[in-house]
Every structure is written in C-alpha cells, then in structure tokens.
Amino acid sequence: MEKKKPFSEEVKTKCLLWSDRHCGVCGKSCGLDIEVHHIDPKEDNIQDNAIPVCYNCHAKLGRYIDSQPRGTKYKIQEIKKSRDQIYERYTSHLVPGLLPTIYPTSTEPSTYYLPQIGFAIAPVGQFIPVKATIVVKTFLGGKDLGKIGSKIPYYDGGIIWHLNPGLRFRGNFTIPKVCAESKEALQLELNITIIDPYEREHKLLPVCFTYVRKAEPNDGYWFLEPTSFAQLEQYVKKSNTD
C-alpha cells in the first residue's frame, strides 16, 4: 500500500492548537509525544480527515485486523466525534455569548416596517476578539424564500464580521416584498458561525424569529422562538391548511 503523504503544516498546527496537544481519542495530554493521524487513509489530507493522537492510540487505530476481529473497531464517525469533543473542550471558552435581536419587538417598536427589518447583535462579556458569519433565511407560509440578498453580503455569509468586546452592531435588511403583502406565517432564521482566534469554526444552534401580524400592517412585531425553523415547519404548514 502506498504511503500516505503527510499533512500540511497548517493542518497539523490547527490540530495541535485546537486540541491543546491532547489525544483526540483518549484525551491524554501529550506534549511532544503526539502525532497527526489520517482518520480515513483513502481520503485526502484535509482538516476533517486529521486527528491528533498519542502513540498508544495511533497504534491501536492502525492495527485492527478485519479478518481477525477482536474487540470493537473504531469507526470513522466515532473517531471524528471523539476528536471534535476534544477540540470543543479546549476551544469553547473562546466563543462569546451572543444576543441577536430582530426589530420591531413587542417591547421596543421601531421605524422598521415590513419588508424592512431591523437587526442587532451584541457579544456578551469579556472575550478574545473573534470573527463570525451570519446567514439569515426567510420563510413564508413554510416556504423557504432563501437567504437575504444585498449588494454587500452581510447576511448571506459572504462577509466576515469582526466582533470585539463591548461593541454592539445595529443594522437592517430587506426581505421579499411579498412578505409584507401576505397574511401567511412569516419566520426568519439566523445561522451564526463563530470563527475563534485559532480559526476553528463553531456553528451555533439556529435562532428563529416569528412575526406576529396585527390589524394595522405596521403594528406587528417579532418574537424569538425556542427552536429552529426545521422544528416549526410541520406546524406552520399545517396552520396554513386548517
């Protein structure tokens, strides 16, 4: 079997930083005694195929014989999940809390009226400056209208936001005009990814907002849902057929 080419220095450095030089299988602190292993020898030298391991675990990952099975083999998905748990353990403290808000709210009316939406995001507490991408999707009557489009792609993941301690961003964007004219259920879903100082991406859970329509078009407001739109979708579609 042809010997696998080594990972690039960039890939190896990220593995070691994200794990704080702990084994991605057993969690042991390794210091100098650590290696970067190919999770799937058939795959390329990409970041997702790399795992930092101690000498003992490296030997175990490579010596299992399928024709003479003893014990339970490490599966690829199990190895990746184990690695990601270690990465999370040593990088989660780099991720700030975030408070995204859509305007108007029930307690804070604003000058933003459909199809224009007010938006604010506030990092919470003291933290090392991080970067982020934000993707906002519109759903009308359970139908996905896609990501917010604009000349500068602040809300479709094209722009990287710089989040510094103490800074609060306020902005606005426009959703399709049909959302203002329709009486169907209207939701916005925010998908935020934090990029920590070691360049590891942390995908936060989706944040969903529902619009409450009132008799007067400009009296409506947004409220925060406790779940994602994927969980709400079946109920939204059912309400449209009742």
CA-based shape: elongated
Number of helices: 5
CATH class of the largest domain: Mainly Beta
Question: First CA to last CA: what distance?
Answer: 62 Å
Helix and strand succession?
HEEHHEEEEEEHEEEEH
Which class of secondary structure composition applies to the elements? alpha+beta
Radius of gyration, Cα only, in angstroms? 23 Å
Characterize the largest beta sheet: strand count, sense, and whether it forms a barrel: 7 strands, antiparallel
Describe this protein's structure.
Helix content is 22%, strand content 30%. With 242 residues, it is α+β, with helices and mostly antiparallel strands. It folds into two domains: 9-92, no CATH class; 95-241, Single Sheet (S-adenosyl-L-methionine-dependent methyltransferases). Strands 5, 6, 7, 9, 10, 11 and 12 form a seven-stranded antiparallel β-sheet that branches.
SSE diagram, text form:
Blueprint: H1 9-19, E1 35-38, E2 50-53, H2 55-63, H3 76-91, E3 97-103, E4 116-124, E5 130-140, E6 143-147, E7 161-163, E8 169-174, H4 178-181, E9 186-195, E10 201-203, E11 207-212, E12 221-224, H5 229-241
Q: Quick gist of this model?
A:
By secondary structure, the protein is an alpha+beta fold. It has helices spanning 9-19, 55-63, 76-91, 178-181, 229-241, and strands at 35-38, 50-53, 97-103, 116-124, 130-140, 143-147, 161-163, 169-174, 186-195, 201-203, 207-212, 221-224. It has 2 domains: 9-92, no CATH class; 95-241, S-adenosyl-L-methionine-dependent methyltransferases (Single Sheet).
